[in-house]
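Before a colleague's protein record goes any further, I have to sign it off. What it holds is a sequence and that sequence's fold in token form. Would you go through it and say whether the fold makes sense for this chain? The record follows directly below this note.
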Amino acid sequence: MEQEKNLFTWRDEFLTKTDFEKWVGMKKENLEKHNCEMDHNGDITDGKYIFLVNSDSCMLCKVYRNMNADFAENRCLDCPLFISGNGCEQKGDTPWKDYLVTNNVEPLIRALEEIKPDLPQRTNEVNKIEEGSNGPF
């Protein structure tokens, strides 16, 4: 008997390697394959459980973010995404800022593909799924 598709089966398929695979998993067709969708905040849900898409669920942030920095844009100076010119906290337009406004994952996928060899392996610490949702999609 086939396992019911949900947020946990999505996690098992897309959150086992790097942040690149996470963002590929956030494409609409991959979410739908697991009966999931992106809510109005850009988080992933199956209606019962939610995966929050933020710095706590980003392996790059876990490895490279310096919370002792004086300004937000200085927190990520060592991040490969920042070094490539696509850092989330950089001034101006960035793939992350575009995602926050449009929920379009493609710019982040392209930016992560450029730095794929430098991406750290994801850990269970960043793969947390919570009960609940952010309301209507």
